Amino acid sequence: MKQNAAFLVSAKKAQEMDWEAFSKWGLHQFSLVEAAGRTCGENLAAEFHGIFSGRKIKIGVFAGTGNNGADALVMLRYMILRKYTDTENCCVLINKTSNTDDVSPRAEALQSLKKMGVVIYSWNGEELNHQNLQDSLEDFDFLVDGICGTGLNNELQGIPLEMVKLINAVSGPVKISIDVPSGLSDTAAADWHRVHADVTLAIEPLKTMLYVPSHRVSAGRIIPVEGIFPCELIKQYVDYFLWSWETVKQDIKPLPPDSYKYSRGLVSIYAGAAGTSGAAVIASRGAQASGAGLVRLYVDRDIYPVTAVHAGGIMAVALEQPDDPRRFQPDAVLLGPGWGRAAHRVPVLEKVLEQEEQGIPVVLDADGIFLSKNCTFHGNALITPHPGELSQFLDLSREKILENPIPILLETARSKNLHILFKSHVLFAAAPDGRISVIDGMLPVLGTGGSGDLLSGLCAGLAGRMKKEMARDFDFHYCSVLAACLLVEAGKQTAALRGFPDPLDMADTAARIAGEAWLGTGENI
User: Fold this and answer.
1) Cβ–Cβ < 8 Å for 430, 422
2) 227-238: per-residue pLDDT in tens?
3) Which stretches of 290-386 are DSSP H helices?
4) Global pTM?
5) Which among 49, 41, 59, 56 has a CA at the least distance from the CA of 140?
6) Is 25 helix (H, G, I), strand (E, B) or coil?
């Protein structure tokens, strides 16, 4: 599944790749900066076509001393040459003037802009009145952040910090960061100063720091800038993979035409209690939407009448009712949504974990995660916690987890021998073998009660289907990535039609999207 994903790398690996690009591939920093700056300009013009096609734009550039600043300056030069702007409608604010013997890409770009007549201010120059500058920048269309790049190791200080504060203080212009918002780094704390960008033109390969939950909002809309480095070179430095429905669906194979309910997987769900019957219904609808052949929902007898009424094709069963093991051997199990944490739940959990030991995929969500905190796993379980649930599961603070979840998820998955799908505005899938996949979930409509229940149902439904179809080749990690991408895509499409959607509406959308992929009626045919 890796051939379609976007690549994520650390800042350190990005720097190593830059060096290899020059030393082994013959790609000089001047050519890389020129390519990056021009492509950033092309992407910006395409993204804001309406603004660029109407008039000369007003654009201000904040340029630091490194190649990140050079990228921003080259982008401005491209804008002028393409007549998107002119020298009267742009200005450059630099941290430091270049020496006469400076032969860096930044110095070259500055020299050409000066000759073109662009106004260039030095931050500590006598001619610069900061308050007047802030007032004048309010009327600009775009402010470009090229202050700091991926080489930052410490919190911002001095002039770079002052420049970041000015960008953030200006209201009105669209704020564009080049590669990463200035102030971010692999080790940046959540409270460090950084540019709060509306858009980040992220130069390939994408940097992992952009998707750390405590950093993600600062990047705004992330637009990949591709075609700068050879793909063969990038692949040597990949840490993790970034997935979306558009990329992951390319691996999906249509169902055989002779499929029937038992060949598509039987999913058993233990969920719901008095006052939380909705969680059971939503989770079951999620399993159904993912294409599972048969969904059996086990609920307490006192809520059975309520859930049975809304069951539709779901087979609602009173938990106390004897089961026929010859007919209903599950291919996957989901336990926990709205289930409660009472002591009488433990024997059911123990029975389910016996099935997990035997190789049956088990999804644990909500109360199921809490109850299984001290249990032993055998590589066939997936937990789907949000930050609060993972905090309780690991006895770690929510803030520490969100500040840098990847090392925590990797260690937990390895030490406990289980799969994790961590839910926040960025989703992370971690496997016991060390794989990490990232799904960008910056979608406010998913922040609603029931969306997590829907996700757990999608996970269980896909697990049941894929376990039945793939047998020994079943990959729980791949399954969890599919489910997360499907949820995000369903949220986007439902919100576009209904605004704030009900999770059951998102389940209907997920069923349509999944059907287009697996039934051979979508664009990927």
Assistant:
1) yes
2) 999 999 999 999
3) 304-309, 346-357, 367-371
4) 0.93
5) 59
6) coil
